[in-house]
Amino acid sequence: MNPPSPPPTPLPPSPAHPILILIWDMCVITRAGSLHVSESFLLGIASDWGIGWTNGTGLDRTAFANPEDAERHGGVQFCRIDLYVERCMRAHRNDMENIFPFLFLGAIYSMTGPSYAVARLHFLVFFLGRVVHSIAYLLALKAPTRSFAYVIAQVPCVSMAIQILMEVASFA
């Protein structure tokens, strides 16, 4: 009589193919990035057209920074500085200064193979922080609101940078 054979050992779960993980991560960062770029694009349009969101005046601000634009839309008398348009331009510039580094960090971070839920949390916190920051900038809310939103939006960036550095250090 033959001795009983040992039970088969279960195979460890096979990880997903690295290319599939990379494609999935790129989809997540692309979606997050497109939300940020869309928000900043709207701020750029608001500053270019002089849209008055706070008082609902729409395109009737008729303030142009360049004389050639002013002449095309009514005359040189409209070549003036509008404080709200300047505020929109500063908000747009601030978004550009923060969104592009986020997109770079997010793309590299996605390639390190983070947990999907954690990556989404990073992207969501950054997005919500930037939206609150932009709204606080446009509506001229009191100072702590804008600063707090900025810090909240930078926490995921710092976290992603640290995790990227830890991943790179593990190969050294």
Explain this structure:
The protein has 172 residues and is mostly helical. The chain has a single domain, classed as Four Helix Bundle (Hemerythrin (Met), subunit A) (Up-down Bundle), CATH 1.20.120.550. The chain is 68% helix and 0% strand. It has five helices and no strands. The protein is elongated, with a radius of gyration of 24 Å. The N and C termini lie far apart (56 Å).
User: Averaging pLDDT over every residue, what do you get?
Assistant: 75
Number of strands: 0
The major beta sheet can be summarized as:
none
Order of helices and strands: HHHHH
Set down the secondary structure blueprint:
Layout: H1 18-49, H2 67-72, H3 83-111, H4 116-138, H5 143-169
Helix pairs in contact: 1-3, 1-4, 3-4, 3-5, 4-5
List keywords for this structure.
172 residues; mainly alpha; Four Helix Bundle (Hemerythrin (Met), subunit A); 5 helices; 68% helix
Tell me briefly what this model is.
The protein is built from five helices and no strands.
